Amino acid sequence: MNSLTPILSTITASFLGSFVEVVEAFTIVLAVGVTRSWRPALTGAVLALAVLAALVLIFGPLLALVPITILQFVVGVLLILFGMRWLRKAILRSLGVIALHDEEAAFSKETAALRQQSGDRRADYLAGLASFKAVLLEGVEVVFIVIAVGGAHGLTLYAALGALAAFILVMLIGLLVHRPLATVPENTLKFVVGLMLTSFGIFWTGEGIGADWPGADLALIAIFAIVALASFAIIRSLRGSVGKPTAKAAQ
Amino acid sequence: MNIIRIAISELIGMFIDDGSLAAFSLILVIVVAGAVKLFALPPLIGGLLLLLGCLAILVYSVRRAVKR
């Protein structure tokens, strides 16, 4: 159980975090493919994946040179920052303070922008660039999630498998339904991922400063439960005071 | 160059959204790590302080955003 806990939580956190990012990238690539043509869409996406692979190959081995406690501390702090940001945003979205992320709207916006550029001689280049940018930027987040979630415990391979599973699933769903994955409950996913990343962050930063958590890796589940309960309590206590949701622009 | 600039700002944006959330989190980590390393605070107490501190910062940040 003790060794299974970090493996399962690593795969789950990586899968859920990557799923959100892959959906966002897929929406843009789909918009480019449908509006312009699949050649620039796929060229941009493949080039971005090549850049990402190069980044992982260059920086991945460097991580092995860093002492494990320093790695746990640095990755833990970054995860606290990353996870708390997601968690805060998910809580504010569920309270109706900021607007939900809408993949359908993102698809329409990208499509409209590409249509405007269709008269431009460089339309194919611009379409390919849009696809490249989307896959690169969302991909960098996926790479970070994989390194952060897997790196501190030497479970990068499991984290990568989680991300790969998310990638394959999004592609399959996307190809089957052939439209943006607007029905994916992104805020719920972001909420769970925020909880997991924050818990990982606290756990590893604690280990980085020398804490021997009671129950070793099982403490991760307890930390997750406490952070989850606190987050639900925040939502519950503030739901009344927010009043009518006035979805401000998504931050 | 533009794409590199966008990538860098996107990378920073991954960690910093609400400035005070990031600043308070970093201050918390520095204070707790300093207390453990310099003042011999038991590391487990430090870990628990991190947990409680993060939750307090989250409550503060969400409440502030709701009020705005």
UniProtKB/TrEMBL annotation, chain A:
The chain crosses the membrane at residues 12-34, 41-59, 65-84, 125-149, 155-177, 189-206, 218-238. It comes from the Bacteria. The keyword Membrane applies. Keywords: Membrane, Transmembrane, Transmembrane helix. This is Uncharacterized protein. It comes from Rhizobium jaguaris.
Automatic annotation (TrEMBL), chain B:
It comes from the Bacteria. Keywords: Membrane, Transmembrane, Transmembrane helix. The chain crosses the membrane at residues 21-39, 45-62. This is Uncharacterized protein.
